[in-house]
Structures are given as C-alpha cells and as structure tokens.
Design goal:
The first copy, chain A, has helices at about 40-55, 95-100, 110-120, 180-185, 185-200, 205-210, 220-230, 235-255, 265-270, 275-285, 290, 305-320, and strands at about 5-10, 15-20, 25-35, 65-70, 75, 80-85, 90, 105-110, 130-135, 140-145, 150, 260-265, 295-300. With about 325 residues, chain A is an alpha/beta fold. In chain A, helix 5 (about 185-200) packs across helix 7 (about 220-230) and helix 8 (about 235-255) crosses helix 10.
C-alpha cells in the first residue's frame, strides 16, 4: 500500500491544474492545461477526470478524494457551483458530477478559501488560529480564519474581501457598485489605470506600450510590474495609488477581523515585490494599535500551485 | 428561594447604569447615574458596587454574577480594561476589583459586544447564528457573530467596525487615520459637519443654531435629528451624506461577513428614523447579490437599556 494522497484541482477562467497532494501539502505530481471555457461544464469536468486518472495511474495507491477550488460562489453543503463569473457557470452540480465520473469522494470550495486553508495547514499560516488571506490577482479574493474556523457566513459567501468599499466616491466596479477594494487595487483596475495613462499621455506610457507590443488595450497589471522592474519612472504615481488603496483595504480588514497574520498573495503581490513592505508599514501606521499589536503581514508560501495545494489539502483533511 | 438574576452594568463615558436582569433578558430593576470620570477607576468601581448592593437588597435572592460592558478594549481572559478612551482608563483590573468589592463572579467585555450578545439571546438576533450588530452613537461600534460564536480576533479587538475605511481620501478620524466609517457617519462626525455648515452659512444653520441654544459648538447629532424632525430643509444634504456613508459601510460589512441579519442601533439610528429604510434599500442595491440573498436589515430590540441587558445576559449565560 502506497502513500495517502488526494487530488487537488485549481479551476480558473484561464488555467486548469490538477495535482497529486500529500498530507504535508507537497505536490507529488501535477498536470495543467488551458480551461476549455467554451466547452462548458461537461467538457471541463471531462478534462478534470482525464487528468485525474492520468495522475492516479502514475501513483501506486488510489486518492482519498478530490478537492476543487473554483473562483465563484459555492453551495458548500451540496458542492454545487452557484455562480462562477469567469467560467460563465451557474448552478453546476460539480461535486456530484465528479463523484460520478471518478468514483471518489469530492469536496468543492471557493478558490481563495482553499488557498487560505492550505496556507493555514502547510504555509504562512501554520498553527495560526486567526488569519486573513488576501489574494490580489485580476480581482481580489479572500479567506478568513477566526478561532481556527473558516468563516462561511449566512449563505457561504463570507470574505468577499475584494468588495469592501474603500472609496465611496471611487471608480465603478464590475459588481455594479463603486469604490470597491478590487476596483482600486485589483489587477484589472491597475490595467485600466495604466491604459488610461497611456492614452492620455503617450510619452509617459511609452515604455508600457512597448512592453505590451504597441497596443494600449494589451497593457495589463503584469505590464505595469515589468515597467516598474525596468525602472520606468512614469509608473511611480500609479503604483503609489495602488499601494495607498492596498493599505486602506488592509487596514479595514485588520480593524474588522483583528488577525494575528495577514497573508498576501496573488499575481499583483508577486509582480510588485515592494508592495508587501509598504502594506506592512502602512497597516502598522494606520491600523488601530490594539488591532495591530499581534499582527504580522507576510507573503503566502504555497506559491504557484497554491490553489491546487489548498484544494488537495482540504480533501486530505476531509477524507484522509 | 427567589428568581435567578444577574447584575448588568453599562459603563460609558457619560452614564453608568446597573440593572437587575433575568434569564429572559428582562430588566427587573435598574439604577443610573452620571459616570464620575474625574474620580477615576476607584470611584467608579465604588459607585458600581453601591448601586449593585442597592439592587441586591431589593431582590429576594443573590445575583449569579455581574457582567460589565464598557466602551474600550478588554483583555477578555483577565477581565482587564486595556484602554477605555472615554474614561481615560488604562490597564484597570476591573473584574478582579469588582469580584473583591462585591464577592460575586464578574465578566467584563466591550459594550457593543455585550449588546450584540444580548440582541442574539433576547432581541433582534434571536436564533440567528450569523449576524452583525452595528451601533451608531457618538462613535461607531460593532459586534459580529459567526456560526454562533462572537468573533474575538487575535488580541480580542475584532469588529472595530467604526474603523473600516470607506473613503480613503476622507476626513480625519479620532484614531489618527482618514476616512473611517465613524469619521463620516458617527455622531461626532455628523456634529462636525453640521457645525461647519452653520459656520459657513449662518442662514442655512439658523434652525440648528436655535435648537442648540445659539452656540455653534453645541450643535450635536441630536440637534441635526431634531432639525430634521422639524422639517428643516437645510439638513437634507447633510443627511444624504450620512446615509450614503452608512450604506457604503454596511455594504462592506455585508460583503465581508455575509450575515443573515444586520442589526442597527444607537442614538443616530434612533434619532433619524428614515435611516434604517435607506440602509436596507442601499445595501440590497449595492451589496453582492450572493451576500444579500439571505439578509435582513433590522433595528435592535433591546432599547435604551441595551448595554446593561447585554452585560447582564452575558453574566446569566456564563454564571447562571
């Protein structure tokens, strides 16, 4: 009999990853492909099943179960995807479908909640009972652990941290409201600001435009990060706005949740290495002293596989 | 042998109330006086002890214990007041002192947390496992129950909801930061805005000035409420700002905590009866649909004695 392991799936709007994860949160093996969004749930589920079987064949024991993290709102009890905007899915019985296809037990959760739990079990939140995990990618997602328990809320959508309002007069958000955290500091908002800058002042946007292959519409948060890394002085003001917004949002979270650890991760945090120090300083300066007394602001440790590790670790915990 | 009851104490910067509270959260008897802030902890503790004994003498059984709710940061384990800004107290061993003075067991907590727990046991949050209680008085305080448990956080200061940031370019807050929820919607902020208005435009401020006895510096949130009640058209814009700020803050809380019930209370909510409908509407309109699906926005039910009822109910639960 071989080692105990679980399948961990990170199901995003661009990338689908399936990993073989052990009880220490280590990735033993992994497969990755572009998500076939156009194919709809049936096609994506078939891809997950095929990748899972391939990993299973390369192992010397069956998985204890499969965990899936997906960007969207989940009905945790039924393992049903209520709404996954990036995939265009509504009311997909993902747990049921995967259990039928793979004949192993499945658990489905929100992607950043999976990461949060993974960070707590094996990463930057090990042994910490009160933590907030903030993932700043294209949007901003979050997970909160309080007294050792993941907050779920009334309808399992607690910790939509990208949609706390930090500027009630601020720019519109994709959610229909204004001034949300992610409308100021998320990857899409950084891209929007950079594109505006390049349109309004072509000379200031020159470097970014070059890095984006000459098309303003192709400037992304990654372009901004690369321009910053190459010393482009014109992105300084933009990054100043982003770091002010990140500090304001993090102060709100620290005052509201009083975590021992604030764990930051995601493409924007990885791409702009100075940000985490600025947030650490800013939160200590602007947060309530009582709320920051026990606080550490740290980088997530699960790395590029965070989603799959988190989902697999959850499955190990539930079924292992 | 008589009924089981507890002493409940609401200890604020202006008012000190001690009540005899039964197992249903009913006030059987109560005493109230101005808080002797200048006398310091020893004098206030002596007042609490004297009022407690007077209530005890009028009862036909001893109390099961005493609960104290106090505006400030509490070390819950030791029952020590870390910092109570309105009283100017730092590191006061309140639980120990009261147990020594009264020879009954004592529990000390933050005032809005006491109210939150009281609302959950006997008020607007009965039977609800996920709720947010927001008290809008001079400042803004809060309490959060998630999965049936009061959030405490890493250093027992979770739910400082008056200090989430809703306008990162907003006015200064007493905490040293800018744009906090209470710096836009708390009673002191409403008073500040009204005073500014009366100073800048005496004709617009005429009604408020009259109600405040002619001194701009005496205009309070209550003056604004009375001016509004008397149909003063000049306070409309000010109240519009307050309701926008309240909606923004409540949307943040609903998206972050996903409560089943948002309970509003405190002087500002009581003084401006239209506010609660506006918040209810605004939160439904601007909150994430998934986060508002199960939400009710309601008024607190514990009324004027909320602090003492909450603290007494906590003592009944802990010691009863």
């Amino acid at each position: 009999m071989g080692e105990r392991w679980a399948l961990g799936v990170d199901l995003g709007g661009t990338k689908l990853e399936v990993a073989r994860v052990d009880g220490d949160g280590q990735v033993l093996d992994a497969l990755r492909m572009a998500t076939d969004v156009d194919g709809g749930p049936a096609s994506v589920e078939a891809d997950i099943a095929r990748m899972s079987r391939a990993l299973w064949e390369r192992a010397d024991s069956p998985p204890v179960g499969i965990g899936v993290g997906i960007a969207g709102q989940i009905d945790g009890q039924r393992g049903q995807v209520r709404f996954a905007p990036n995939l265009g899915w509504r009311e997909v019985p993902l747990r049921e479908d995967l259990e039928r296809l793979l004949r192993v037990r499945a658990v489905v959760t929100n992607d950043v909640r999976a990461i949060t739990w993974g960070e707590r079990l094996h990463g930057a939140g090990r042994g910490i009972d009160d933590l907030v995990c903030l993932y700043v990618g294209t949007g901003i997602g979050g997970g909160v652990v309080s007294a050792g328990r993941l907050l779920e809320g009334c309808t399992n959508t607690a910790a939509e941290l990208g949609h706390i309002i930090i500027d009630l007069n601020g720019p519109p958000c994709t959610c229909g409201n204004r001034g949300c955290f992610e409308a100021l500091a998320g990857g899409w908002a950084i891209a929007r600001q950079a594109q505006e800058m390049a349109r309004n002042d072509p000379s200031a946007g020159e470097r970014m435009l070059f890095l984006a292959g000459g098309a303003v519409g192709k400037i992304t948060a990654e372009t901004v990060a690369r321009a910053a890394a190459s010393g482009d002085p014109f992105v300084t003001g933009l990054l100043e706005n982003v770091s002010r917004a990140l500090i304001a949002g993090c102060v709100s979270l620290v005052n509201a949740f009083n975590p021992c650890r604030l764990i930051l991760g995601g493409g924007v945090i990885d791409g702009l290495p100075d940000l985490i120090d600025k947030v650490r300083e800013g939160v200590k300066r602007n947060g309530l002293p009582a709320a920051t007394a026990g606080l550490e602001v740290v980088r997530g440790l699960l790395g590029a596989n965070a989603g799959a590790v988190g989902a697999g670790s959850l499955a190990m915990e539930v079924f292992g």
